[in-house]
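Input sequence (330 aa), recorded before submission:
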Amino acid sequence: MNAEQRLRSTEICRLLGIEYPILQAGMGQVAYGALAAAVSEAGGLGVIGSGYLSGEELRQEIRIVRERTRKPFGVDILFAATASTSEESLRYTNRVQEQIDVTLEEKVPVLISGLGNPLLVIEEAHRRGMKVMSVVGNAKQARRLAGDGVDAVIASGHEGGGHVGRVGTMVLVPQVVDAVKVPVVAGGGLADGRGLVAALALGACGVWMGTRFIATKEARAHEHYKQKLVDIDEEGTIVTRAHSGKTCRLVRNQFTDYWAKHEGEIAPYPHQLETVGAPASVRGRIDGDIDNGSLPAGQGAALIHSVPSAGDVVRAVHVEACKVLGSLAL
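Predicted structure, token format:
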């Protein structure tokens, strides 16, 4: 089996019905229908980030994808729950429940929990022929979610952008691979074909890339944000609770500097997100105020040097991975 065949036949490709094991992360306010459609049409898995969408807005983005491609795609939901999160009394917030209802009604091929516990949704999603995946930050979470019935887990390391755990990708991925029997996708600081090959070497069967896809033509992000990702190096980001009350990796700027001096004023999730993170996201991601806005980005931004189309990113990652695999053949 040559490198091309190996990449096209990984577990995640077979499970999701995609050509290449390249999954685009569902980034809030950035990953909408146009981006998801472009990634899926190119052979990866495009994902809509539902975080800032109402149920009907999400439905519109789903239909944009379906107008542009017939290939599989996903919706990423942040499963924010009400105060009690025990299995016996788990309840999702009204907004999250709207997003869940629309995703199920539309029978989106892949439902992804980017945060929280999708326990109450798994059985119904499977009944409708959908696949369910969950982002995890440690092996304990992975075992629990695999036991709950998710079809695959995304092991996202500390180097990634947005909400992150404490464990680095190189350590996290093989631990999760050893902990579960379902397919594992690797994320966190991975932005090119070399990262895809490294993920495969660690036992994963694909990659979850976010930051690389922000700096693309189809991403719904201000050009200042995209260019900032081109400009920063591996030290241009910082992990902070300023955005949402949970640890989140952002571009280092005046926004993060301010909250570094006022950590005691940061509210718990989701209150910090609603009062601070959401408006700061609009300032940065949409309005282009890269100094005072909240700009999620991973350390993989150091590997970004241009703003191409999303389809070109998928193809470039695939071609580079094939070359690297070929050069490693003994």
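Checked by second reader. The chain has a mean pLDDT of 95.
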